[in-house]
Automatic annotation (TrEMBL):
Gene3D superfamilies: Vaccinia Virus protein VP39 (3.40.50.150)
Keywords of this entry: Methyltransferase, S-adenosyl-L-methionine, Transferase
SUPFAM superfamilies per UniProt: S-adenosyl-L-methionine-dependent methyltransferases
Pfam families: Methyltransf_25 (PF13649)
InterPro entries assigned to the protein according to its UniProt record, in alphabetical order: Methyltransf_25, SAM-dependent_MTases_sf
A molecular function GO annotation: methyltransferase activity
Listed name of the protein: Unannotated protein
């Protein structure tokens, strides 16, 4: 696999991978920090739950996983795209990275938090989105949480549809926000950060 032959995903994912410059994308977060912006909103949000272990599902270049690891959490990353994982491995060679399709991966263990940030669910092929949610949920420990964030744009899963998949996987809706900063979710919100919990 090469950077001009991205891994299979949704049409939106293929388009993103074919058009994005990966080095420029990686530097985007550095530029945010240099300009005084916070590039770690997702890690800040996950840290509120004080997990001992985190799975970054659809981890890409590992930005969220690496930041969480620097905060002392045991962190594992999984992604479909080996090119993106290569960047992650180069930036954090001591962390555990897995190449895997979210619709059928099985790491053989559970985590306190499974986080899928950065429009991960929307970038999964439509036919496999519910399977991806179920497989992510299967890696959530009792009392643990599945946390996702993605845009609401008319073509990606509506919140009620996503909630149904989580319920089918044994998770309960705990909270929904419109940003990683925890701003309230409104009917006209264009982004959803959702927390589902597995009962003890």
């Amino acid at each position: 696999m090469t950077e001009d032959q991205p891994a299979v995903g949704s049409a939106e994912w293929s388009h993103w991978r074919e058009t994005v410059d990966l080095d420029d994308y990686a530097n985007r977060w550095k530029r945010m920090a240099e300009s005084g912006q916070n590039p770690h909103g997702e890690a800040d949000f996950v840290s509120r739950f004080e997990p001992s272990s985190v799975l970054d599902a659809g981890c890409g270049m590992g930005r969220v996983a690496i930041e969480l690891a620097t905060r002392g959490y045991e962190t594992v990353g999984v992604d479909l795209d080996p090119d993106l994982l290569l960047h992650a491995q180069q930036n954090a060679p001591t962390l555990v990275w897995h190449v895997g399709d979210l619709s059928d991966f099985d790491l053989g263990r559970t985590f306190d938090v499974v986080v899928a940030a950065g429009n991960v669910i929307g970038f999964v092929d439509e036919a496999n989105r519910s399977k991806a949610v179920w497989r992510c949920a299967a890696h959530v420990a009792p009392g643990g949480r599945l946390i996702t964030g993605y845009s609401i744009n008319g073509t990606w899963p509506a919140p009620h549809l996503y909630d149904g998949w989580c319920a089918d996987a044994g998770l309960e809706l705990e909270a929904r926000y419109s940003t990683w900063d925890g701003d309230p979710f409104q009917p006209d919100s264009t982004y959803a950060v959702t927390v589902h919990r597995r009962p003890v």
